[in-house]
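retry 2 of 3: previous attempt timed out while embedding pyridoxal-5'-phosphate. Reduced batch size to 1 and resubmitted. Inputs unchanged:
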Amino acid sequence: MELFNVYPLYNVTPVKAEGAYVWDENNTKYLDLYGGHGVISIGHTHPYYVNLLKQQLDAIGFYSNSIQNPLQQELAQKLGELSGCENYKLFLCNSGAEANENALKLASFETGKSRIVSFNNAFHGRTSAAVAATDNKNINAPINLQQEVTFLPLNDIELVIHELGKEDIAAVIIEGIQGVGGLDEGTTEFFKEVQEICNKKEVPLILDEIQSGYGRSGQFFAFQYHNIQPDIITIAKGMANGFPIGGVLISDKYKAKFGMLGTTFGGNHLACAAAISVLDILKKENLVSNVNEVSNYFLEEIKAISQVKKVKGKGLMLGIEFDFEVGELRKKLIFDKHIFTGGSSNKNLLRILPPLNINKEHIAIFINALKEILK
Ligand SMILES: Cc1ncc(COP(=O)(O)O)c(C=O)c1O
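retry 2 succeeded.
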């Protein structure tokens, strides 16, 4: 059987990884400034993570959500403590799309309404309502277009107020910092005003922190730069360093009912062990402050490259904008300089999403490589 060919692939085959590096089958070493799509948070094969997962696998890997699983409570407690979101409840699932799907479903249950407000260039995943709330016609099939979604430009509060005035909105969903769309973000004023109108109209505000969360932005959640309290927060990517997991943080004002949400695999023992070990390492190694330190260094050093038009994003969720398409540059970085970076729907933007424990030397390697390619 052949694979259903949906991914354009770079011809690189990683076979082992450690920290900020991966090695291919010829033992060529690559610096990973992409973290497999913003997923690797505590570094590849972190020994604490590997150990906890191995121990869990030896003990019990999986049982259904019909039995007690204290690892879920441990995860919720540690996540609440580290994120400062103690007063939320946690629902566990398996991916980012699933987290947004459940968040939108919950909002629709609560309001009894179905229209969603999302934003231009948003990416929220590839399943039913999540993909409908994603601003990309090419990945929406006719079945997804049954959902009612209105896309608005970021930072235009009057349009948000106008839509919410129609009294048929189930949820407003917004990324803390846009990922796939190209690192645009709402201003603090905009986030605050969106929160205000959502509160006034009793419309749940969903913050998609799937990519921008877990310390990547230099705060635990990117929305924490804006001093708001969303009703629902979705998480995935960096949460378990590559082990599939997602989560929905739900405001105390929404009450759970048996059967309202559910999943077979979500919150299984192995996924919880992986996610707990990530939180332990984020705390023990003070990775959020490392993100800020390395990010500041990056922002200083990148100034030396005259071809860079703009740097977008925060922390270690960065986009470097040029006035040319970066496809060829990314290829040169991989094949000549052995450095992984990312792209986005903005073809002129190079995306940097490294493990959160990279250091200044790694950034210096990248800056030198960029200088050499662009000279
Ligand atoms: C902001 C955001 N939301 C949702 C998703 C979907 O996550 P997943 O691919 O785990 O379904 C992504 C993935 O890139 C994302 O960046």
